[in-house]
Amino acid sequence: MNFVYDDGGRSKYFKGRTGDCVCRAICNATGEDYKKIYDLINEISKREKTGKRKKGTSNARTGCYKYTEKEIIENILGWKWHPTMHIGCGCMTHLAEDELPKGTLIVRLSKHLTCVKDGVLYDTYDCSRDGQRCVYGYWYKEEVK
C-alpha cells in the first residue's frame, strides 16, 4: 500500500506530535479544516459522562473514545460503518490495497484511526505494518462500497 504523509492540516495550527489520529483521519477523508474538526470533537466530548471504568473524556489532541468518534463520523458527518472483524472469527481484512474497497475510507485499527483513499494511506506514519495490520472496520460515504 502506498503511503502519503498528511497531518490533516494540523501543522497550520499546532507544532509537535500528539495523539490526534481521529481528527487527522476525519480531516484527510472529508477535506474539512483541521481546527473545525478539532473544535467539534472537543465540543462533543463535553457531553460525555465519566464513571468507574471511564475516568476521563475524549480530547481531540490526546485521544477519543470510540462512541465519540462514532457520534461524529456517523451521526454528524453521515458516513456508514462496515465491520470487517467479528468476535471469534479472527482477522479477515488487513490494511492492504487489495483488501479494501476503492473510494475514501476512515479505517478503524487497534488504537488508531487512519484514512485510505483509493488504496493510498494518508497519515503521519505508515501504520500498515507492511499490509499485515488488522482492520476492524471502516466508514465510507454512501456512494462507496
Keywords:
single chain; alpha+beta; 6-stranded mixed beta sheet; 3 helices; globular; 6 strands
3D architecture notes:
With 145 residues, the chain is of the alpha+beta class. It has one domain (2-140). The chain contains 3 helices and 6 strands, in the order E-H-H-H-E-E-E-E-E. Strands 1-5-4-3-6-2 form a 6-stranded mixed beta sheet, covered by helices on one side. Strand 4 and strand 5 (120-123) form a beta hairpin. The longest helix has 12 residues, at 34-45. The relative contact order is 0.21.
**Low-confidence spans:** none
What radius of gyration results from the CA coordinates? 15 Å
Number of domains: 1
Q: How many alpha or pi helices?
A: 3
DSSP E strands, number: 6
The coarse silhouette is: globular
Specify the biggest β-sheet. 6 strands, mixed
Percentage of residues in DSSP E strands: 15-25%
Run of helices and strands: EHHHEEEEE
Strand order of the largest sheet: 1-5-4-3-6-2
Helix-and-strand structural type:
alpha+beta
Provide the residue-averaged pLDDT.
94
Sum this structure up briefly:
The chain is α+β, with helices and mostly antiparallel strands and 145 residues long. The protein has one domain. It has helices at 21-30, 34-45, 66-76; strands at 2-5, 80-83, 104-109, 112-117, 120-123, 137-140.
Task: Give the SSE layout.
Layout: E1 2-5, H1 21-30, H2 34-45, H3 66-76, E2 80-83, E3 104-109, E4 112-117, E5 120-123, E6 137-140
Parallel strand pairs: 1-5
Antiparallel strand pairs: 2-6, 3-4, 3-6, 4-5
